[in-house]
Amino acid sequence: MQLLFYQAPLSALTLLPIIPIFEPLVGNGGLFHVWSLNALVLVLLSGCIAFMVNLSIFWIIGNTSPVTYNMVGHLKFCLTLTGGFLLFHDPLKLNQVLGIILTLSGIIAYTHYKIQEQKANKLPIAESSDSQKL
Question: What pTM does this model have?
Answer without folding.
Answer: 0.64
